[in-house]
Amino acid sequence: MRSSSRVAQSRACLASLSLLCLAQGVSALVDSSGLSNYSFPEDFIFGVATAAFQIEGGWNIGGKGESIWDTYLHKHPDFTIDGSNGDVATDSYHKYKSDISNVKSLGVKYYRMSISWSRILPKGYDNFVNKDGVRYYRSIFKELLKENITPVVTLFHWDLPTPLMDLGGWSNPKMVDYFEDYANIVFTVFGDIIKTWATMNEPHQHCYNGYGGDNFVPALMSGGFGEYLCAHYMLLAHSRVYHLYDKKFRPHQKGKIGITLDAFWAEPKDKSNHSDLLAAERYLQMHLGIFAHPIYSLKGDYPDLVRERIDNLSISQGYTRSRLPYFSRKEIDLLRGSSDFFGINHYTSYLMSDMPIDIDYRIPSWDHDTGVLIEQNPKWPKPGVDWLTVYPPGFRGLLNWITKNYGKKIPIIVTENGVSDLGEINDYARVSYYNNYLYQLLLAMHEDGCNIQGYFAWTLMDDFEWKDGYTVKFGLFHVDFNSTERTRIPKLSAFNYAEIVRKRRINFKYIETIPSLQSNRL
Ligand SMILES: *[C@@H]1O[C@H](CO)[C@@H](O)[C@H](O)[C@H]1NC(C)=O
Ligand SMILES: *[C@@H]1O[C@H](CO)[C@@H](O)[C@H](O)[C@H]1NC(C)=O
Ligand SMILES: *[C@@H]1O[C@H](CO)[C@@H](O)[C@H](O)[C@H]1NC(C)=O
Ligand SMILES: *[C@@H]1O[C@H](CO)[C@@H](O)[C@H](O)[C@H]1NC(C)=O
After folding, report:
1. Whole-prediction pTM
2. Which label site among 203, 244, 367, 378 has the fewest CB atoms less than 10 Å from its CB?
3. Which residue positions are annotated as catalytic (predicted)?
4. Per-residue pLDDT tens for 184-233?
């Protein structure tokens, strides 16, 4: 794959790449070799991430039950923009060994993945455990250990068993019990191997897009109510499972357990405008603080600003009670401190300015409650999907916001970060994205004192990207979805990431050095 035409192309691209770097103010090269002046500590966790529904396929194989994404996409084939579904995806159900050898080739020692709830408990309930499903994940975990790669496992990455959705999904308070029952089985059958758990992935995106809106399944469109019920019971379910692990499993399994949240960076549109500064802060509190404050703040509970704002708006809209449920004193105490690390997924930034709320506005929504006008900066590059513009300093801003709000004691682990493009094998935009975002992470560590212990690139290979189907490409490896083999090929960014992991520094001149690397194999 390291053909001469590729090298020629890479030279042609250098000009635009360095323009991108200049535009973003990266002047971090210390010498002519192009290596970053700061480095990643020897014990820094480098990994790569995937999620079950996005790669596994095998939707009805080996005794697996249906998840909401299976059921909904079979009923509504037009939901995804290419009419696709997750029935086969990258076929990792069958090809996990080649996936693991690709992970190994990156040189990373950690692999973040999720378990499909309905592969373990086909109906969602714990009265029947699917032995084939347990065997499948144990085979993956053993293969990873054999290759000296540590699995980091998420219990819930959006693929809820359909029978639980029929009862209201995360808007049903009983979900707290069902999630605990599922986690109890999973800790019992895998806890001897798995030492790092995350309960949930990105509750904001799941609740906002799936319960408040219709961008994600279950597409409930219950704005102003659904997303808050979902958030509330996901938080309670998270804390229940944290304490289950802490009391029943941690004493002998000796692992860690946390949660993965997400946030865009909120850049004030006009930094000299006070109401824009307040709007940016309000956005972060409504998107991230609403989940992080109950878990990581000293005080616990929802942030005051979120609480008051939704209470006030609910009353002014004529409701007797707040649309955001209240925690009991006991629930606040159980949530506070219920995570061993701060898992954060980050992709992009937006410009924020104040959007005055019309107090008489009767149709409630999270957007209306937030009261922020969200725009993209047309100057920030957009190499692929429409929602993702490239603004590396936003990453540093977010890591600092987390540190400022929740302190330096809680270790931050970046559980996802990455960019989409048009699917090129010579993915210069992705090489540049990783270099520049990782450099901002180094600045946050070395200059700002943020306690960042790990980083997972999203994602190992092109995959099923939810509503975007297979049209949006985030992979370090290309996947040929036209071939039944789902052939994987490493992209340029895979070689670049492997070099960062090996050298513990970023090589800003990686692309220029390709000719000298021609004999190297990943
Ligand atoms: C690394 O480069 C940055 C950006 O030029 C500079 O602010 C910083 O002081 C440098 N650090 C070291 C250790 O040289
Ligand atoms: C909520 O309403 C109270 C009473 O009108 C007011 O003092 C407070 O500032 C409001 N809070 C927010 C966040 O809007
Ligand atoms: C600040 O921005 C808001 C809109 O976000 C605008 O209405 C207001 O006039 C601006 N204030 C100043 C002092 O520029
Ligand atoms: C399959 O191949 C066709 C023709 O080469 C191409 O247009 C299409 O994008 C490919 N589909 C996928 C999912 O890669």
Report:
1. 0.94
2. 378
3. 416 (nucleophile)
4. 999 999 999 999 999 999 999 999 999 999 999 999 999 999 999 999 99
